[in-house]
Specification:
Layout (H helix, E strand, L loop, with lengths): L4 H12 L4 E7 L5 E7 L3 H4 L4 E3 L25 E5 L5 E2 L6 E10 L2 E2 L4 H14 L3 E16 L2 E4 L8 H6 L1 H13 L4 E6 L5 E6 L2 E2 H21 L3 E3 L13 E9 L2 E2 L12 H21 L5 H4 L9 E2 L1 E3 L6 E4 L9 E4 L8 H17 L17 H6 L3 E2 L4 H9 L2 H7 L1 H18 L4 H8 L4
Parallel strand pairs: 1-6, 17-18
Antiparallel strand pairs: 1-2, 3-4, 4-6, 5-6, 6-7, 8-9, 8-11, 8-12, 8-13, 8-14, 10-11, 14-15, 14-19, 16-20, 18-19
Helix pairs in contact: 3-9, 5-6, 7-9, 7-11, 9-12, 11-13
Length: 449
């Protein structure tokens, strides 16, 4: 194989930055971030075809490395992780290593079970409607330390307390610096409600980059925290009596370089097209939750009156609604909306891709959402909720799985192969952990997420 101009440029860049290994990343159906690393001196041999993995790796649950029965996958065969060289980035927290995202290729064709490939397909489906989707993942996470055998928060403050900012100054600054070095714009930071809980928001971008950035964000936060002798965790519920960690997805619809989400005269400041997109999300939300909140632990966070979206509804600036439309400071229409029933146990490619599939279904069928809710739906009388089309969302992963198994739109979007493997992993995790106490979940999952 001969060296082309792009390879020579990459090789020179790696030499100048002292990179010895290039990590080829993928994200599995349990949302574990995995990689195979290529030594920089051998890069030419893997430039076009990438590195091989067993297809069975996409059927591993979070508990252990074992291929799940019923997934349709086995240890037999080979899938190539083909690097997307445009995403190559040196790692500021791991000198000598760089990262590149990959697409899964089988026998020269995109593999149906590739999560990143699924999102790419949904982006193309949006283009058929003349739409570009822009998005941002908004993460909450805990900074933790050990007190003997006990895990405690890195501080004991309350929401937005400047005392927490001072206590965690160095680690937060280092996280922000590392993200910016990886060309991820940092927008805002503030301490959240839980002890040691933090939130750092990233700027919105194109859908594929948003999902890539979510992987980078998790990796960076955990690595930087470790260097400060702290543990960072995105696990949805760590402490029974403290706030949970969400990972809200912010969305906007664009056409020809213009944000077409707002309409100053529209309901909640949204254009008719954006309302139909929201209606699609709400229609499919009970099934979507198997993808966006896919851990048994996720449902400990989603409770009424906890700002997590426990009822199927939407509203303007309503933090109890799973779909919150964010008002414009100038009152000229809402430029974006967020889905709150998402957490960082979700594979970002699957979560965002499934949300797009649901929204597009709303557009294609001219769906209209129920009337927006301007109060906490948990305080509405049951008959009033029913009359206004407001229903309780799944209370556990088992219920969400059952909804997904009946949702032909989402299953078709995922493809039969991907949906079979994904559901096998979800079912295995549900069966294994459905009777666990919180302490057992935290013991297993704290380091995973």
């Amino acid at each position: 194989m001969t060296e082309n101009k792009v390879f020579k440029k990459v090789k020179k860049s790696l030499q100048e930055t002292g990179v010895k290994f290039v990590r080829v990343l993928w994200c599995d159906n349990a949302n574990i971030i995995r990689a195979k690393a290529i030594h920089s001196q051998m890069l030419l041999h893997y430039w076009e075809d990438g590195v091989g993995i067993s297809p069975g790796l996409q059927a591993l649950p979070v508990m252990y490395d074992s291929v799940m029965a019923g997934s349709g996958l086995t240890p037999v065969g080979n899938v190539q992780l083909v690097p997307d060289w445009q995403t190559l980035t040196p790692l500021p927290y791991s000198p000598g290593h760089a990262r590149v995202f990959s697409n899964m290729i089988h026998k020269g064709q995109p593999w149906a079970l590739c999560p990143r490939g699924f999102l790419l397909r949904m982006i193309e489906e949006a283009k058929k409607e003349g739409l570009e989707i822009k998005a941002a993942f908004e993460n909450e996470f805990y900074l933790l330390q050990k007190n003997g055998e006990e895990i405690i928060g890195a501080d004991a403050t309350v929401f937005a307390a400047t005392a927490s900012m001072d206590a965690n100054l160095e680690v937060i600054n280092d996280i922000a610096d590392a993200l910016i070095l990886q060309e991820i714009p940092v927008e805002q930071y503030y301490p959240e409600s839980g002890p040691g809980q933090q939130e750092i928001s990233m700027r919105y971008t194109e859908a594929l980059a948003a999902a890539d950035w979510q992987v980078v964000f998790r990796e960076t936060v955990k690595a930087i925290a470790d260097r400060h002798y702290l543990t960072a965790s995105f696990l949805p519920k760590i402490f029974a009596e403290s706030a949970g960690n969400g990972c809200h997805i912010h969305l906007s619809l664009w056409r020809d370089g213009k944000n077409i989400t707002p309409n100053s005269q529209g309901i909640c400041g949204l254009s008719p097209l954006a309302r139909s997109f929201v209606a699609g999300i709400l229609h499919h939300l009970p099934a979507l939750m198997a993808i966006t909140t896919p851990s048994p632990n996720s449902y400990r966070r989603i409770r009424p009156h906890f700002w997590s979206g426990a009822f199927r509804c939407w509203g303007l600036d309503n933090k109890e609604a799973p779909v919150r439309v964010i008002s414009s400071p100038r009152g000229d229409g809402s430029t974006n909306f967020e889905l709150k029933t998402v957490d960082a146990t979700a594979n970002p490619y699957l979560a965002l891709g499934a949300v797009i599939a649901a929204g597009l279904d709303g557009i294609r069928n001219n769906l209209e959402p129920m009337q927006p809710v301007s109060q906490d739906p948990g305080y509405l009388p049951l008959d009033e909720r029913i009359n206004n089309g407001i229903s309780s969302l799944p209370e556990n992963l088992g219920q969400a799985i059952a909804h997904l198994q009946q949702d032909d739109i989402l299953l078709t979007a995922l493809t039969p192969q991907l949906s079979q493997a994904f559901l096998a992993v979800r079912q295995a995790e549900w069966e294994a952990m459905k009777d666990w106490e919180l302490e057992a979940e935290v013991k297993l999952l704290l380091a995973r997420y």
